[in-house]
Amino acid sequence: MINDIEIKPTFGTGIHSVSPAHNIEDLRVAEHFKLSVRGCVDPDTGFLTSPDVLAGTDLAQEEDSLYKIVQALSAEGQFYKSF
Fold first, then answer.
1. d(Cα 76, Cα 83) in Å, to the nearest integer?
2. Are 48 and 56 in contact (CB under 8 A)?
């Protein structure tokens, strides 16, 4: 747990999750607290770089990407529901 100015205890539950490579606010918190920042998208190509089973997946091809991600999660028993 961390306490930071980004967390507003009077807003909602006062709890905030941090995904360091998700957006600029989360990145700022991650850098301030020296959290690991490991992205999975190549900034030059926009393709996934990890996990290995999805490496090279072009996220711009949404339907194909979604299919590959669902298949990879299903193979690991980690896919629960599609919307």
1. 19
2. yes
What is the full DSSP assignment across the chain? ----TT--TTSTTS-----TTTSHHHHHHHHHTT-----SB-TTT-BB--SGGGTT-BTTSHHHHHHHHHHHHHHTT------
State pTM to two decimals. Answer: 0.47
Cβ pair 41, 48 in contact under 8 A: yes
Domain boundaries, the chain: 1-38, 40-83
Q: How many residues does the chain have?
A: 83
Residues of 20-34 as b/e, b for ≥16 C-beta within 10 angstroms? beeeeebbebbeeee
CB 59 within 8 A of CB 68: no
What mean pLDDT comes out for the span 51-72? 84
